Amino acid sequence: MSDISAVKALVFDVFGTVVDWRTSLINDFTKWSETRGIKADWTALVDGWRAVYSASMDEVRKNPQNGYVILDALHRRSLEKLVAQLEIKGLTDADLHHLTLGWHRLHPWADSVAGLTRLKAKYIISPLSNGNVALLTNMAKFAGLPWDLIMSAELFEHYKPDPETYLGAAKLLCLPPEQVMMVAAHNYDLKNAQKHGLKTAFVARPTEYGPLQKYDFEATGEWDIVAKDFGEIASRMGC
Hints:
Rossmann fold, DNA polymerase, domain 1, 11 helices
């Protein structure tokens, strides 16, 4: 049992950990398309979109000479390719913009807001996400997420799991890494946070990818906390 008594801030992965991106996007696009008379396999689009997420960020890493590119821009590039591949017809530029901003309109998991609110009473809470600042801010307003501040990969111009993100968050908070806890539903995220000295908390989200989920059903590392939901994390943290 590791010592978590010194923790002063909790930072959260967002997509999949705090919000249910897959269900949110499929429902959002299905309802919207009915008003526009557009036919598409939105489940295929959403799953395809997320499938190229990591590769789109890798392109930024591999081409530093081109500068940092925010996630909204990467999402738009990926969307345009997928729309062509899936032969979705009749979308205007405004429609593509609306779909891209779907990532700003994600709904939280049932336990997220209550758990965050409990934690906020005692700790600093913030996202530490690959989403850009505007995306995370708009999502917080939409979903009622009670963050104390917004920390994004955009601030560090590095995507997770680059060390600059984890260490940059601690630096912005003027805290040593061991006083910051990373909360995620993804073991790889926690592995990298732990490697750079942060404390770790795992919460399983076994339906994040729907029937396509292949991993992260359970903790696979020596994390400081393993919990079933944010409420249990709050209880473990004395809230």
